[in-house]
Structures are given as structure tokens and as C-alpha cells.
Design a protein that fits this description.
Blueprint (H helix, E strand, L loop, with lengths): L6 H38 L16 H8 L6 H9 L8 H11 L4 H5 L3 H7 L5 H23 L7 H12 L6 E7 L5 E9 L9 H10 L4 E7 L9 H16 L3 E8 L4 E3 L7
Parallel strand pairs: 3-4
Antiparallel strand pairs: 1-2, 1-3, 4-5
Helix pairs in contact: 3-4, 6-7, 7-8
């Protein structure tokens, strides 16, 4: 015999349905929350960084230099070898590429970056790496200078430019150098005689001639740089050249040339017929 459902049974069933609904809802919300967190994590996760040690052996800069020679490496690969290591987020080669890119991929521009700038602007470059990089660039400048000095003798304005360009081209200020030679235009000595500002430097003819007399030089060359990039002589350059030439005549010393060095170009007073 069937009995009609009591009111208590109805409440029990309603309660069970409510509990089941709440449990299902909580489970759904929990799953959605975890999926959202995982999505955010995947979006913000840094790209995987591969150390140079994980590269193929033939692609590693050091091994490539050993097997193929330094001439087959790019500028970035050579700089990566000097840096030795990168940072947590990039390899030494990636860091080298970033440094080169900041210098417009130009080694002359790179040579103008001082130690503080290298450390401040490039994460992964500390004082030690900055010093190593700066020392290597300075050796490059001196090597070019040594190539000319080994010839001993000056034949033309190009020889003078090649001698002083490594010393002067990257400077942000003006410097003036003196080249002392014997009567066969063989180099006796080169020395800096003044250090100036961005647009000019002072040259004292008495100091110039004192150095020439001390070394018994028969001929001299004056050379300074224009950081502006324009090698055209200024009125002050013309005046000091004329003044020094007149002083040399009285002491039987020849002013062979006055060279103004800029980036990749130069001005020669001798070549232009202004001596």
C-alpha cells in the first residue's frame, strides 16, 4: 500500500539538493581560479634562456675561434669572448649584440663608451667586464699606432693621420700632439702637448719648440682632433699654425705639417698649400 510522502521527506530531499548544488558550484569556481592563475603564469613566464654551453660546439664563440681563427668571428662573437658570461636572462653573445646595437654596431662608437656608462646601461656588465672590454679596445688603438711606428719614417700626410687617428678619433675633447723627426723624417718621439675642451685646446709655441730642441729634432708635425667631426681648420688653428711656422724658421726647424684628425677624414695644411 503506497503512502503519500511526508513533509519531512520533502525537506530532506531539498537539503540534499542544496548541498549538492553548493558543492558543485564551489568545485567549478576552484577549477576556474586555478586555470586563470596558470594562464597568467604562462603569459608572464620569461622565455627560456639557453646558455652558450648548451649550443652546438661549432657555434660557441671560443670553440669557433680555436677551430676557424679570430678572423671568422663577428664583432659580437669577439666581444662575447671578452665578456665571458652574460646574465640570468641572456647569454654573453646576446649581451654583446645589445652593447653593439647601442653603439650603432660601430666599434669606434663603442670605444667612446666609458666604464660608468657600460656598467650603468647594460645589465650583466659589471666593473670587471667593463674594464676588460675597455682594455681590449685600447689595445686595438695602440696596435694601429704601432704598425705605423714600426715603419719609423714619415712619407706623407696619410702616414701622420694613421699614426694619430687611434689616439685622437674617439676622444670627446680636443688634444694636441707633437711629432718629432730627424732630417730624414724618421720618428724620434710623439707626445701630447695639450689637453683642451670640446671645441678647442691651447698650444704654446714655446713648449713645442722646447720639446724639439731637447730632442734635437730637425722637423716637427702638429696634430690635433676635432670632436665635432668637421676637420676644417678654425681661425685659431690658422693663427697657431702661422705663429709656430715663424718661430720654427728662426730656429732652423721645419714645420712639416699640421694635421686635423676627425672620424675617418683629416685636413693637412701641407697638402692644402697652407704652410
Amino acid at each position: 500500500m503506497n503512502h503519500p510522502a511526508s513533509l519531512d521527506d520533502f525537506f530532506v530531499l531539498s537539503y540534499c539538493f542544496y548541498v549538492s548544488f553548493v558543492f558543485t558550484l564551489c568545485t567549478y569556481l576552484y577549477i576556474m581560479k586555478n586555470d586563470t592563475q596558470e594562464t597568467r603564469t604562462s603569459k608572464t613566464k620569461e622565455p627560456q634562456r639557453f646558455s652558450i654551453k648548451e649550443w652546438a660546439v661549432e657555434d660557441r664563440p671560443r670553440e669557433k675561434l680555436l677551430n676557424q681563427g679570430a678572423g671568422n668571428l663577428s664583432n659580437a662573437e669577439l666581444i662575447a669572448i671578452l665578456l665571458g658570461s652574460g646574465s640570468r636572462t641572456e647569454s654573453a653573445l646576446d649581451l654583446a649584440k645589445r652593447i653593439l646595437n647601442a653603439a650603432n654596431n660601430n666599434l669606434i662608437e663603442l670605444g667612446k663608451l666609458n666604464l660608468k656608462t657600460l656598467c650603468r646601461e647594460f645589465k650583466g656588465v659589471g666593473p670587471v667586464k667593463a674594464v676588460v672590454l675597455s682594455a681590449a679596445l685600447e689595445l686595438g688603438r695602440r696596435r694601429r699606432s704601432s704598425d705605423v711606428l714600426s715603419k719609423h719614417q714619415i712619407h706623407n700626410s696619410r702616414d701622420i693621420y694613421n699614426l694619430f687617428h687611434p689616439k685622437l678619433a674617439d676622444l670627446p675633447h680636443e688634444e694636441c700632439w707633437l711629432l718629432l723627426m730627424n732630417n730624414q723624417h724618421r720618428i724620434i718621439e710623439s707626445l701630447r702637448i695639450s689637453h683642451g675642451g670640446v671645441s678647442e685646446t691651447t698650444v704654446d709655441p714655446k713648449i713645442v719648440l722646447k720639446h724639439a730642441l731637447d730632442k734635437l729634432a730637425s722637423s716637427i708635425v702638429l696634430c690635433h682632433n676635432h670632436p665635432s667631426g668637421n676637420p676644417k681648420p678654425s681661425t685659431a688653428d690658422d693663427k697657431i699654425t702661422h705663429k709656430l711656422k715663424m718661430a720654427c724658421v728662426n730656429l732652423d726647424i721645419q714645420l712639416t705639417d699640421h694635421i686635423i684628425v676627425s672620424e675617418g677624414i683629416y685636413f693637412s695644411y701641407a697638402d692644402e698649400g697652407k704652410l
